[in-house]
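Hey there, shall we discuss this one?
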Amino acid sequence: MDVADADILSRHAVPRHRLTVDDYHRLGEAGVLGADDRVELLEGQLVDMSPIGPRHAYVVDALSKLLMSAAGDRAWVRVQNPIVLDSGSEPQPDIVLARPPSHKYLLAHPRPDDVVLLIEVADSSFEVDSGAKLELYARAGIREFWIVDLTADCVLVHRNLSGDRYASVSRVETSGTLSVEALPEVAIQAAPLFS
């Protein structure tokens, strides 16, 4: 299906088949989806992921190093690995701080109750991260969600779930400090992410 066909379908009430997380995994096991296919499952649909540019990769590396050092044994830092939000969504966020013990993730990806903090690094993906993913994460009950906005050199910290949305959003500038609400002793400086 090319882009023009997708536009036609979006303008009409055409029934669609939604994939489950199990269907998604079977596609990988059958070789339909390969290791080089950069897709994730959102709301039962395969969604293309943006390519990772050098700056995006640098910030993910910096975040993982800083958070591993700050969190110690308090949280398991997972980098660009899946989480299961529900039966139809398995995104691959840039960083997740998951509750220990880490060995429980040998057999299953973390679920929302396991997530202490979820982070997306956004450049060309900002619209998706601050739109669809923000709503999905809030609806799933992810208590704290940061968007590292590389287009504006700041971090948007979403907290205080109220129903299916975050009631508070604060903007942390490059000179600020980022602390994890559920683990207040885990704090990092924002500056290394942007220099």
Summary: The chain has one domain: 51-194. The longest strand covers residues 154-162.
